[in-house]
Amino acid sequence: MFGCGGLGCPTATYLAAAGIGKINLIDFQKPELSNLNRQIMHFEKDLGIKDKSVSLKEKLGQLNSSIEIESFSLEINDKNIFKFKESDVLVDCLDNFHTRYLLNEFSLSEKIPLVHAAVEAYYGQITTIIPVKTPCIKCLFPNMPNKEGMFPIVGPTCGILGSLEAMEVIKVLTGIGDILSGKLLIVDLKCMEFETINFKRKEDCSVCSKYF
């Protein structure tokens, strides 16, 4: 799981509660006071002291002691990401597209399914990438979105998208149900609307066209 913040907290909590055998938690940042409205597994006592990956591991260990949880205080780059090539599913709980694009390429090169989610304010999106079968994140977002500075997130938005993300991971692992492959679920919680759109692979995609 890449990112142990607003999305990572609820996603990891439901995966741990479901008994997922092993969960790797990757995040190098420390919790800050402004995070606590949405990063619900980090507490005031954790502020500025523990990395988020360590803080989240402690809470999940108390929730389910029968599973294996490892924390990695890493800022992901194109070299250390290969530590996770034995993963069954990659879980994108990130807050930036630079690392998200790197995760997308890693998913394709190692043929590991990738569940992607992102949130902002009252809005969220989620899709699942199956290498060599579905479009990739670069097909969906060929140009890096222009995000400058901080952007607001209403706490429950993370809770809802994180729950959906955990559900997608469970479906990928068990093979039960239909996953969001080639589909983007868009959530507008301000108007309480959910919309699923289909998207296709770009034949000239700079990333996944190398693998088809």
From TrEMBL:
It comes from the Archaea. The keyword Transferase applies. Signal peptide: none annotated. One of its GO terms (cellular component) is cytoplasm. Residues 2-207 form the THIF-type NAD/FAD binding fold domain. Pfam families: ThiF. This is Putative adenylyltransferase. Keywords: Nucleotidyltransferase, Transferase. Belongs to the HesA/MoeB/ThiF family.
